[in-house]
Amino acid sequence: MAFPAPDPDLAADLIRGRGDVDGLFAEACRLRDEGKGRTITYSRKVFIPLTTLCRDRCTYCTFAKPPGAGGAYLEPEDVMSIARSGEAAGCTEALFTLGDLPEERWPQARAFLNERGLVSTIEYVARMSERVVEETSLFPHANPGVMSEADIVALRPSNLSMGLMLENVSRRLTGIGMPHHGSPDKEPAVRVATIEAAARRDVPFTTGLLIGIGETIEEIVDSLLAIHRLDRGGIQEVIIQNFRAKADTPMRRDPEPTVQFTARVAAAARWILGGRVNLQVPPNLTDRFEVYLGAGINDWGGVSPLTIDWVNPEAPWPHLDELRARTEAAGFRLAPRLPAYPEYLDDRWIDPVLLPAALDAVDDEGYALAPQAIA
Ligand code: SF4
Fold first, then answer.
1. Which of 285, 230, 233, 228 lies closest to 262, judged by CA?
2. Which domains does the chain carry?
3. Which residues line the pocket of ligand 1, CB cutoff 6 A?
4. CA 329/CA 343 separation, integer angstroms
5. Coil/strand/helix, residue 325
6. How far is residue 208's CA from residue 225's CA, in Å, rounded to a whole number?
7. What does the radius of gyration of the chain's CA atoms come to, in whole angstroms?
8. Which H or E run includes 315?
9. How far apart are CA 31 and CA 257, in angstroms?
10. DSSP class of residue 317?
């Protein structure tokens, strides 16, 4: 008997572990196999934390730091040094991740930008993305927080793709005592507006959920449905990221989602979003990460042979040989991809500045060439 069509109440029950959970997993794998085959992708990246200053105050975050306590911008030469090291190690992605609008909160941020003739942090992202494109073989992926449509237009010629985690669509999480209180950039409407702007500009876009931060199961389902509604074909990838409690944060004692729970959310995501979207669970946040292959995912995301996961610094990425061995042992092929997935490598989705180099960097199937094969 065919598995039922997606339904919010049924999705909530299944995520809770009630009902035909085995059927959900089977349906998620069927949709993945139908849409993506048996190839699991990853992106060889370097992580460039352009600034660890941020105007927001998310209570699970250790990435953002105030000035004087580690909050700072990377200098241009630091950025280029990371990028060149990544190039030498065969990476293809320069992931620019940074705090949101630090200049709106910290005078030190405004001073850094003023001294360099920059009007905004986003302009700094654009300038450094352009240098990475001009001076290395890496392709930037900008993950700079909330972006206006003008920001997206400015970044598009130097970024193969962009991203912003929706995290959750519930405004409740911005209330007093909740993780997004005091974080204006975590207002769901603001994040939805960024995703909509990226769609209008034909940018391959990555988004996703952060689960385990105090949301209800119904809010998880609402968030998956919201992403499904927002998708006009440009949401290339949805990440299901499990919260990890970090020392020195207000949420250090909060329970973390279990592997089984995260897998059920991933399977529900595949069921709701269908076989077209690429679905990722990061492999460095769970020891038994192969479990997620049985929940319908088809991507491990950015994996770096060089740089730490600055968002989860306690969780090293698996070595690429181990990732390959464990993926293949589960019956899949592991293939490297660029920051844009193969199906987006055309002149609708990729700026003409980047498209020729991107096509030169992939094989006939659109997967990234092995480092030694890149001219
Ligand atoms: S917006 Fe991002 S960097 Fe800033 S505090 Fe929140 S999680 Fe941390």
1. 285
2. 8-361 (3.20.20.70)
3. 54, 56-58, 61, 63-64, 99-100, 183, 185
4. 26
5. helix
6. 11
7. 20
8. none
9. 24
10. P
Atom of ligand 1 nearest to the CA of 186: 1
Task: Taking each helix axis as running N to C, give the angle between helix 259-273 and helix 21-36, from 0 to 180 degrees, rounded to the nearest 10.
Answer: 50
d(CA 172, CA 107): 30
Per-block mean pLDDT, blocks of 10 residues, the chain (375 long): 94 98 98 98 96 97 95 98 95 97 98 98 98 98 98 98 98 97 98 98 98 98 98 97 92 94 98 98 91 98 86 83 95 98 98 98 95 49
DSSP 48-93: EE-B---S---TT-SS---BTTTB-BPPHHHHHHHHHHHHHTT--E
Query: What atom in ligand 1 is closest to the CA of residue 54?
Result: 4
C-alpha 367 – ligand 1 centre gap (Å): 32
Task: Give the phi and the psi of residue 322 in degrees, each rounded to 5.
Answer: -70, -40
- Which residues does residue 237 pair with via DSSP β-bridges, in sequence order? 206, 278
Tokens of 272: 């709701």
How far is CA 126 from each of CA 116, 129, 154, 156, 354, rounded to the nearest angstrom?
14, 5, 7, 9, 14
**Could you give the CA distance from residue 52 to residue 114 in angstroms, rounded to a whole number?**
18
Residue 198 Cα to ligand 1 middle (Å): 21
Cβ proximity of 113 and 124 under 8 Å: yes
pTM surpassing 0.85?
yes
Cα atoms in the 13 Å half-sphere on the side-chain side of 56: 23
